[in-house]
Design a protein that fits this description.
The protein is of the alpha+beta class and about 260 residues long. The protein contains six helices and eleven strands. The protein folds into two domains: about 5-215, no CATH class; about 235-260.
């Protein structure tokens, strides 16, 4: 994927999606979600941009301790100045793994409050295949969705948002209706075969109906995260000195006894 395409992907994920299938409602229900530690860590894409994935921590009540809510907090570093924040939820339908992405509502994504007032966060949907060595993601694109509408193959609640280049569809259906749509169309044999072939090859040469991204483990420095410094334990040093002194005094006393 070219760098410009990665940037477009992140803009789509943090704003009102301009190239991905987007929905006002989540694609998952609580019973469908799950958490896997294999996703947690530092990763990088082919443009050497860094992705940090951590358990998402929330506080149920004011001043109460934070606890993981079963989703992930993603921070994407294009560079030290360009940072995006996302929330991702891993879920499964018909034994197929998906990720629901949306902007992190607790983070600032825009240059001013006035700009933020005019943006509505949306959910996007991606197929996922992951291990300790890689994370493969394939976002369903709006070209794929538009084709289904043009062929009159689907009827699902949506609104058409007019754009100077083309019209895009924002799904307004409930989560129940969205999941019926996923099972029938996003998981149909033809679409599944295409995505699994992309996952097997590790590359999408066409980029026609979606956006593919491959992440690999990253072990280098992360912007904004300073290395932890270990403070010396003076108590341990004092205990060690006392222990050493006791051994020396004992040796001296033993020599004096032998001498006498």
């Amino acid at each position: 994927m070219k760098r410009s395409k990665v940037i477009i992907l992140l803009l789509a994920l943090t704003a009102m999606s301009s190239c991905l299938v987007s929905s006002l409602h989540p694609f998952y229900k609580e019973k469908d979600k799950y958490f896997d530690d294999s996703m947690v860590g530092n990763w990088y894409d082919e443009d050497s941009c860094i992705w940090t994935i951590r358990p998402n921590m929330v506080s149920e009540e004011f001043m109460s301790p934070e606890e993981p809510d079963g989703s992930y907090k993603i921070t994407y570093y294009e560079d030290e100045e360009s940072i995006s924040h996302l929330t991702a939820t891993l879920f499964q339908l018909n034994r197929v793994d998906y990720v629901d992405f949306m902007p992190d509502l607790n983070e600032e994504h825009f240059t001013s409050d006035m700009t933020a007032y005019h943006h509505i966060p949306v959910h996007t949907l991606a197929r996922v295949q992951y291990s300790r060595d890689s994370i493969l993601l394939y976002w369903y694109g709006d070209e794929w969705l538009n084709e289904l509408f043009e062929q009159n193959r689907i009827r699902i609640k949506h609104e058409t948002v007019e754009n100077h280049d083309y019209d895009r569809q924002v799904l307004t259906a409930s989560t129940d209706e969205l999941q019926k749509f996923i099972k029938k169309y996003a998981n149909d044999p033809k679409t599944t075969e295409q995505i699994e072939q992309i996952f097997a090859n590790g590359v999408d040469d066409s980029d026609e109906y979606g956006v593919f991204l491959k992440l690999k483990p990253y072990s280098g420095p992360v912007p904004g995260e300073s290395a932890k410094q270990v403070e010396p334990s003076y108590n341990n040093c004092q205990e060690q000195d006392i222990s050493n002194l006791s051994r020396v005094n004992g040796s001296v006393a033993l020599l004096l006894i032998r001498f006498l």
